[in-house]
Amino acid sequence: MELNRRTVIAGAAAAGLAATTLGTGSAQAAASGRKPVREPFGTLTDGTKVHRWSLENGGTRLKVLSYGGIVQSLQTPDRHGRHADIVAGFDDIADYEAKSPYFGALIGRYGNRIGKGRFTLDGTSHQLSVNDGVNHLHGGAKGFDKHVWDVEPFTEGSDVGLHLHYTSVDGEMGYPGTLRTKVTYTLTRHGDWRITYEATTDRATIVNLTSHVYWNLAGEGSGTIEDHELTIAASRYTPTDSGLIPTGELAGVAGTPFDFRRGKPIGRDLRAGHEQQVQAKGYDHNWVLDKGITARPEHIATLRDPRSGRTLRIATDQPGLQFYSGNFLDGTLTGTGGRTYRQGDALCLETQHFPDSPNHPHFPSTVLRPGQPYRTTTIHTFGA
Ligand code: BGC
Fold first, then answer.
1. Residues 132-147, mean pLDDT to the nearest whole number
2. Can you tell me the distance from the alpha carbon of 220 to that of 55, in angstroms, rounded to the nearest whole number?
3. Does the Cβ of 284 fall within 6 Å of ligand 1?
4. What start and end residues bound the annotated signal peptide (predicted)?
């Protein structure tokens, strides 16, 4: 603990933090957050201005765009106190608008796929926007990742953060009901990044919000994540068909490459040739978390990079985790640091409800009704 505190202070000092912030020399002073700062980031093709907010607390530095609530940069110290940006992103708003595979974005109204974009609710069938072959992916052609959110900064006790608001009108992308959404990004004095998703609807609908950060704990653009060690507290996962739609089966991970219960390097079984991996070009599946839905966030996954020593621990109240091993990164995108992203250069760990739940009555329900608030929380804890 003592070592950790010192590295945080060293990192803050190296970054040239104001002397007043470090004045007392205490860990507490170094960890107190600074008011979020806003700057212009660019202009969308329709002329809308996009801003970038920068915030910092407890050694973690976060940059968030008003477009898509995108985490454009997230820096944490390594075991020597050296900061690096550990999320994939772009420098330029035009790249986000034209070709982003959801880098860092908020995903809504429904994370992951809905088969053929169809579902039935209370006897009425709904057709959603179809944007992934014949299926609906991450909210459709213009999901929450492609809208400009209203952003409101806050400081509360020792926390700093942003409230992001977006209202999705009745019928948007085919979804019933007007959905009022509020997402809160908080940086705590320990440098944890907490996301709280809240929503209300005026008609019965479905909702499954998540965050699509691509992690590389060695630093974005530094190469493969295959040596990162991953632990997932899940004994089952949801196998998919060739369109990556769950078949409905909850399959055991024991004896398969999908077993991350004891932790292992991601690359260890990545080429095992399991038909589910061949189909998805790697890992791109929903793990059924053993804890199920919980009233409070519980620890469900740990990612560790042995080279930098950085760790990421994830806690959530949600029932599922989509682990995507960056299979579709193909060397055509150039990231923030000027290097191209190739297959497996970053990975996603998306806390969520199971994909295609509206078409599988035995999956936990994603239905939201008027008067029934939606509220879920995921916490990212960084270490080194
Ligand atoms: C999905 C992948 C998809 C990626 C977006 C992930 O959440 O599981 O199949 O390709 O998002 O680019």
1. 98
2. 19
3. yes
4. 1-29
